[in-house]
Amino acid sequence: MAKLTLRAESSSCLFSHSTGSQPSSFVSTLGRRSLIRFPPKHNLEFRVFCSIKEKESVRETKRVDGTIPLEERSRAVAFVFGGLSVGSVAGFLLAPPLIQNLGWESVFYIFSFLGIAWYLGFQFLEGQASWVGESIPREHLIPSPGVPWKAFFQSQAVWAMIYAHFCGSWGHYTCLAWLPTYFSEELNLNLTEAAWVSILPPLASIFVTSIASQFADSLISSGVQTTTVRKICQTIAFLSPAACMTLSSVDLGLPHWEVVGILTGGLALSSFALSGLYCTHQDMSPEYASILLGITNTVGAVPGIIGVALTGFLLDSTHSWSISLFIPSIFFYLTGTVVWLAFASSKPQTFSKGD
User: Fold this and answer.
1) Are 88 and 22 in contact, with CB atoms under 8 Å apart?
2) Would you identify the family this protein belongs to, as annotated (predicted)?
3) 65 vs 286: CA distance, rounded Å
């Protein structure tokens, strides 16, 4: 039960994204080698710290809606959320030397300090620069009173976003937590090689995100319906990793580095979601985009808790990476594609405020 116990402790931290996520997965993987674990007395503080970070993406999506033309929205959203991939790469690069030289606690202290400094810096700039207030009208940042919760949950399109977010997060979080171990144990890479290889998916995502956003905006500019564009991008984001995981789970006798390349390509292409699902909140309702993202993001955090732990349980029970890691993700990618194609919509909706 060593895998399950260690992953259960760290799975709750996967509410967070970017740099906050990478140290947790690296420490967990390293923990199976050198018994580096989080003291129980720090578990609560660790989980609260990580979960607080999640609301920042909700705030930032509100800064995009209503102020960016539809033909540029994919690039704007990709620019904001693309920082997650940059943070992932930075986390993987910085975490190992920090842990080795200063202890595992230093990772969270240093990244927390950098986050606070970043926030205070932008608060200062926002107070000093007149262009900030001019570019983002206050009415676009604060929704009207009386949130129509009932109307949200009566919309099939909203439920499609919720399920798609859950499905995408399942593959993202389980791979984030377990791929370093998979590379080390299944592909026989040493710990250093596994750590470096784990950088490849988020690094490739940086480039894919730029290509995907340009692709989506060009389609919209050429007259393709927004809903069609979002469905195309999200379908690519789901089917690409599903296909690559299928190839990786079947014994084709491929060299280990080819398996690494296949998984890297599939996970990188999942960044098309930034021009699919992640733009749909703004397309559907600029006024309530941040609230809609808050709803889907909350459900999307659940796989970070149950998915990571369940993967460990299945791995302990079956000793099969295909059954524990790949098949569940493939299932959610495929069902998420079906639901998205059937019910997703970017058509603007005026939710009734009377509900």
Assistant:
1) yes
2) Belongs to the major facilitator superfamily. Sodium/anion cotransporter (TC 2.A.1.14) family.
3) 5
Global confidence as pTM: 0.78
Q: CA-CA distance, 169 to 273, in Å (whole number)? A: 11
Residue 278's alpha-carbon distances to 181, 184, 270, 347, in angstroms, are 29, 33, 12, 14
Give residue 94's domain range.
2-143+151-343
Is residue 354 domain-resident? no
d(CA 313, CA 1): 8
Sort residue 253 into left (φ over 0), alpha (ψ -120 to 50) or beta.
left
Residue 187 pLDDT: 86
What pLDDT digit, counting tens, does each position of 150-206 carry? 999 999 999 999 999 999 999 999 998 898 888 888 888 876 777 788 888 889 999
Q: How many CB atoms lie within 10 A of CB 84?
A: 20
Instruction: Tell me whether residue 259 is in a domain.
Output: yes
Residue 348 inside a domain? The answer is no
Decide if 350 is inside a domain. Answer: no
Which CATH number goes with the domain that contains 323?
Answer: 1.20.1250.20
Q: CA end-to-end span of the chain, whole Å?
A: 48
Provide the token pair at 4: 């399950």
